[in-house]
């Protein structure tokens, strides 16, 4: 019996309509795959309802799990193995529930319950894997250090107001997509928490919901017996590689199955082996086109780099289908008018679908990008942004996870081999193969860009590469299992047991893999001036007193003050505007980071209050009315950052020192608090 192709109908069609049709419940003749069903309006309605259920179930389970974790006074992760042992126990329970869901589906029992049960188990898996190790701290992975400092600052900004705004600079539209942070702000408002405190919960809940949606999409396409395996594999490797960057993780979790939808949307209603269809009208799955466009639009509103990869993947797929249609139409030296007409019809249809996806995604992306693009179109001054100036060692080599001597290396190697063997006949192989090829093209382009003084930050794409290869690896393992059954007899129990144990082995290694990130969450001082490991807090413990003094001395709310400081953790905790950003790599180009740095250096050279006040009043940007310095024997200091790419590290720290006598004037109020000097302009 021929296997139905996974792309026979749209991936959002009723269960069983997917190309890789789910295996029939045990007891049907030959355990044959179920036949595809026709996807009508009711089918798409059920698909949409299923995704909504996944979102609700994922959110409820995750919030319930985090609430339960917060009710206990756990020991710190970096000084006890208690939370790690409970993490493993929770992971095993979640995987066991996923196995039950797959068996229920396999035996034809409670089929309507299976997607909701799988969504609950997957969201619980994410919650316990990340939430339990962080159970004794209010901070997320990496605490308030490194990149998490500016991410927390962004969420704090979006919590202070629903209006789109730059994370640091006043009166500027955001340069970094605000989608995940905007919703995080609403989440923080709902909980009544400051943005920095809600960051951990929002990161975990959003990833849990995305994992629930991802597994439901896989189940919709391939049935629960393979869908839960796909969801678990993708979720596990995503937590391993992308969890410190939660808005990237959600795109990997949902994007991996949506790449299959995108492939089908561009090719049209046909089997993978039959090639693309044309003309545009009558052969296009418009629900798949719209779904793909919506996903790419959400991606564009969330993470620019990943959107670039997904867009390039769409172009690669379109090019592949155009070539496939060209050669499938005929390859004789002299072609008939019919063949030429078919080639044109296929090419125009594929390109038309690509354009349609782009239009839908572009309209959604404008919800976030329109203010910034308008500012650039209207010639608002811009300079100093160096977001692409970063090249760590792993960005100078191609990521080849399939050659690792571990479980991840094994599953990704199986995935690579399966893609190479099946891409001519399986839609999934085409989709995963396209994104793998695109990642490597992206990496090579990034390496070549170094000759022009920049990069494409391709090292951040490794989570997508590993997720795609792992998903393909699941299909490879299924094919190997079938071969083993044919050669060795009914060894399904053995194969299933090994698969479950392998999943547990990979899952329980996640906390160890993230040990540095978790430890930092315990050693950093949080917004309440406490360290979760109960050690003495750092200088950040004075932030609360400084905040109180600023509001008292200025008589203004936080969002009406501009602070010049090098202690950017202060801006991560409180929604004050900053005069200068953390580094040029995270600065809005419209802020003119380089010119601001030069202005600060000139202010530090002023000899008296009159000169400083005059310089501040002539500033082309909103000048600071609050200065937060560090005290030193030489004066009041700011430790700022300078881009030194192509060096690695790419940031050079330098100190700017102000003469204390400049502020010895009635126009300034000076207060010393611990190692800090607070100067407020009256």
Describe the protein in words.
It contains 21 helices and seven strands. Strands 1, 2, 3, 4, 5, 6 and 7 form a seven-stranded mixed β-sheet that branches. Helix 2 (82-106) runs antiparallel to helix 7 (224-242), helix 2 packs antiparallel against helix 15 (492-508) and helix 12 (407-422) packs across helix 13. It is an alpha/beta fold. The model is unreliable at 1-39 (pLDDT under 50).
User: Helix coverage percent of residues?
Assistant: 55-70%
Which regions have little confidence, pLDDT < 50, spanning 5+ residues? 1-39
Order of helices and strands: HHHHHHHHHHHHHHHHHHEHEHHEEEEE
Helices and strands: which structural class? alpha/beta
Number of strands: 7
Q: How much strand?
A: 5-15%
Number of helices: 21
**Largest pleated sheet:** 7 strands, mixed
* Mean pLDDT score: 90
| Alpha carbon gap, first and last residue | 83 Å
Rg to the nearest angstrom? Answer: 27 Å
What general form does the structure show? globular
Notable traits:
disordered N terminus, alpha/beta, single chain, 21 helices, seven-stranded mixed sheet, 682 residues
Question: Topology, please?
Answer:
Layout: H1 41-70, H2 82-106, H3 114-131, H4 147-160, H5 179-191, H6 195-222, H7 224-242, H8 246-267, H9 286-300, H10 304-328, H11 337-377, H12 407-422, H13 427-449, H14 462-488, H15 492-508, H16 510-513, H17 515-523, H18 543-554, E1 562-565, H19 569-573, E2 577-578, H20 593-604, H21 609-617, E3 626-632, E4 635-643, E5 651-658, E6 668-673, E7 676-681
Parallel strand pairs: 1-2, 1-3
Antiparallel strand pairs: 3-4, 3-7, 4-5, 6-7
Helix pairs in contact: 1-3, 1-6, 2-3, 2-7, 2-15, 3-6, 3-7, 4-5, 5-6, 6-7, 6-8, 7-8, 7-14, 8-9, 8-10, 8-13, 8-14, 9-10, 9-11, 10-11, 10-13, 12-13, 12-14, 13-14
């Amino acid at each position: 019996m021929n296997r139905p192709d996974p792309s026979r109908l749209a991936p959002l069609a009723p269960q069983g309509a997917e190309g890789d049709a789910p295996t029939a419940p045990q007891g049907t003749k030959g355990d044959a795959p179920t036949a595809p069903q026709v996807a009508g309006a009711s089918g798409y309605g059920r698909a949409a309802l299923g995704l909504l259920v996944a979102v609700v179930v994922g959110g409820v389970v995750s919030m319930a799990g985090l609430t339960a974790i917060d009710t206990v006074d756990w020991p710190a992760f970096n000084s006890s193995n208690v939370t790690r042992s409970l993490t493993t126990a929770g992971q095993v329970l979640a995987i066991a529930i996923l196995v039950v869901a797959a068996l229920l589906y396999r035996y034809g029992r409670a089929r309507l319950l299976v997607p909701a049960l799988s969504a609950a188990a997957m969201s619980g898996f994410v919650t316990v894997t990340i939430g339990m190790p962080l159970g004794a701290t209010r901070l997320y992975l990496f605490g308030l250090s490194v990149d998490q400092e500016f991410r927390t600052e962004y969420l704090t900004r979006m919590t202070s107001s629903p209006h789109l705004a730059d994370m640091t600079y006043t009166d500027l539209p955001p340069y970094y997509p605000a989608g995940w942070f905007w919703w995080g702000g609403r989440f923080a408002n709902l909980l009544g928490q400051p943005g920095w405190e809600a960051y951990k919960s929002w990161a975990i809940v959003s990833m849990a919901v995305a994992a629930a949606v991802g597994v439901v999409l896989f189940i919709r396409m391939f049935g629960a017996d393979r869908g839960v395996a796909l969801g678990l594999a993708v979720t596990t490797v995503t937590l391993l590689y992308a969890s410190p960057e939660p808005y990237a993780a959600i795109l990997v979790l949902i994007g991996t199955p949506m790449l299959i939808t995108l492939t089908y949307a561009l090719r049209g209603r046909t089997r993978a082996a039959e090639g693309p269809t044309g003309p545009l009208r009558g052969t296009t799955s418009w629900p798949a086109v719209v779904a793909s466009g919506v996903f790419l639009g959400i991606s564009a509103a969330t993470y620019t780099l990943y959107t670039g990869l997904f867009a390039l993947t769409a172009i690669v797929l379109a090019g592949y289908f155009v070539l496939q249609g060209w050669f499938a139409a005929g390859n004789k030296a002299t072609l008939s008018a019919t063949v030429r007409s078919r080639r044109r019809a296929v090419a125009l249809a594929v390109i038309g679908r690509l354009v349609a996806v782009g239009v839908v995604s572009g309209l959604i992306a404008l919800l976030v990008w329109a203010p910034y693009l308008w500012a650039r179109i209207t010639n608002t001054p811009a300079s100093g942004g160096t977001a692409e100036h970063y090249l760590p060692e792993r960005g100078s080599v191609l990521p080849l996870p399939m050659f690792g001597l571990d479980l991840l290396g094994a599953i990704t190697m199986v995935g690579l081999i399966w893609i190479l063997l099946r891409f001519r006949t399986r839609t999934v192989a085409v989709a995963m193969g396209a994104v793998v090829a695109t990642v490597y093209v992206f990496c090579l382009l990034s390496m070549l860009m170094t000759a022009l003084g920049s990069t494409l930050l391709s090292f951040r794409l490794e989570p997508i590469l590993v997720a795609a290869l792992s998903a393909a690896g699941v299909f490879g393992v299924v094919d190997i299992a079938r071969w083993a059954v044919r050669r060795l007899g009914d060894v399904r129990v053995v194969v299933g047991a090994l698969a479950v144990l392998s999943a547990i082995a990979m899952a329980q290694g996640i906390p160890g893999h993230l040990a540095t990130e978790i430890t930092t969450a315990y050693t950093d001082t949080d917004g309440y001036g406490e360290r979760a490991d109960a050690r003495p807090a750092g200088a950040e413990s004075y932030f609360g007193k400084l905040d109180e003094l600023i509001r008292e001395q200025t008589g203004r709310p936080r969002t009406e003050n501009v602070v010049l400081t090098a202690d950017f953790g202060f801006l991560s905790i409180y929604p004050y505007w900053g005069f200068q950003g953390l580094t040029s790599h995270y600065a809005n180009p419209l802020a003119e980071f380089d010119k601001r740095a030069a202005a600060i250096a000139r202010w530090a050279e002023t000899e008296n209050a009159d000169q400083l006040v005059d310089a501040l009043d002539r500033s082309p940007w909103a000048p600071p009315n609050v200065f937060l310095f560090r005290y030193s024997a030489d004066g009041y200091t700011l430790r700022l950052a300078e881009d030194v790419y192509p060096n690695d590290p790419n940031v050079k720290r330098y100190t700017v020192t102000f003469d204390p006598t400049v502020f010895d004037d009635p126009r300034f109020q000076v207060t010393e608090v611990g190692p800090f000097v607070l100067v407020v302009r009256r």
